From TrEMBL:
This is SigE family RNA polymerase sigma factor. It comes from Nocardioides jishulii. It comes from the Bacteria. PANTHER family: ECF RNA POLYMERASE SIGMA FACTOR SIGM (PTHR43133:SF50), RNA POLYMERASE ECF-TYPE SIGMA FACTO (PTHR43133). The keyword Transcription regulation applies. Residues 99-151 form the RNA polymerase sigma factor 70 region 4 type domain. GO terms for biological process: DNA-templated transcription initiation. Pfam families: Sigma70_r2, Sigma70_r4_2. GO terms for molecular function: DNA binding; sigma factor activity. Belongs to the sigma-70 factor family. ECF subfamily. Gene3D superfamilies: 1.10.1740.10, Winged helix-like DNA-binding domain superfamily/Winged helix DNA-binding domain. Residues 12-77 form the RNA polymerase sigma-70 region domain. InterPro entries: RNA_pol_sigma-70-like, RNA_pol_sigma-70_dom, RNA_pol_sigma-E_actinobac, RNA_pol_sigma70_r2, RNA_pol_sigma70_r4_t2, RNA_pol_sigma_r2, RNA_pol_sigma_r3/r4-like, WH-like_DNA-bd_sf.
Length: 175
């Protein structure tokens, strides 16, 4: 199989998952498409070396996260506003129903959103997430805790009674 065939097969199989991850990271359909395209362009250039790696997914995932961090740190690379209205970003990933979870997830600060996406969408361990984000394990734990607290607060309709019952359940489990 040629380089292009191998790369094409990888992209065909993984692009939807990569796009969804990028969308969860940035919350904007167009930025997510750009993020995935940039990562795939870089991946294609490195494909002869990367496709032999034991974990291509980790490499690509790290490219997505680093690309998102890079964009958030370099505002001069972003598009500039004009008098004409741009296309409005999608409220949720294509094919998803409008959902309170997406709204709550988009409301999280970028660092917490990254941790949630890597831990709960990609299913990474705390250590793997820390490695991908180049932060300490403690930072991952604190960001996860803060993010999950914010998500619970945003998603619970009756916060006082639900938090009380969750606390009672958690305390019962800890004994």
């Amino acid at each position: 199989m040629s380089r292009d065939d191998e790369f094409g097969a990888y992209v065909a199989a993984r692009r939807p998952h990569l796009y969804r991850s990028a969308w969860l990271l940035c919350g904007d359909q167009h930025r997510a498409e750009d993020l995935v395209q940039d990562a795939l362009t870089k991946l294609y250039l490195a494909w002869p070396r990367v496709h032999r790696m034991a974990n291509v997914e980790a490499y690509v995932r790290r490219m997505l996260v680093n690309g998102h961090i890079d964009e958030s740190r370099r505002p001069w690379r972003r598009e500039h506003t004009t008098y004409e209205l741009p296309d409005a970003p999608a409220a949720q990933p294509p094919g998803e129903e409008a959902d309170e979870l997406w709204t709550a997830l988009r409301a999280l600060p970028p660092g917490q959103r990254r941790v949630v996406v890597l831990r709960h969408y990609w299913g990474l361990s705390v250590e793997e997430t820390a490695g991908d984000l180049n932060v300490s394990v403690g930072t991952v734990k604190s960001q996860t805790s803060a993010a999950l607290t914010a998500l619970r607060r945003a998603l619970l309709t009756e916060p006082a009674s639900a938090v009380t019952s969750m606390t009672a359940t958690t305390q019962g489990d800890a004994r």
